[in-house]
Design brief:
By secondary structure, the protein is α+β, with helices and mostly antiparallel strands. It has one domain. 25% of the residues lie in helices and 46% in strands. The protein contains 1 helix and 4 strands; from the N terminus they run ββαββ. Strands 2-1-3-4 form a 4-stranded antiparallel β-sheet, with helices on one face. Strand 3 and strand 4 form a beta hairpin. The longest helix is centred in the middle third of the chain and has 15 residues.
Length: 61
């Protein structure tokens, strides 16, 4: 089961998303996406869909 969902929105519109079963992999992808795509107007969020908990947000809320 892929419970860790990563989303990237740009200018308020969905642009990319991915699902992973491993939290470690999902967190590594989050870090990579921030490095590759993190800029003004972009929001990147990692959520544990099983618990509904937000694990990471960029930029920090």
């Amino acid at each position: 089961m892929n419970r860790f969902h990563l989303t990237l929105t740009a200018a308020g519109r969905p642009a990319m998303h991915g699902w992973w079963g491993s939290e470690a992999t999902a967190r590594a992808k989050f870090t990579r996406w921030v490095g590759d795509w993190g800029r003004e107007g972009v929001c990147i969020v990692l959520v544990d869909e099983e618990t509904g908990r937000t694990l990471e947000t960029w930029p920090e809320a």
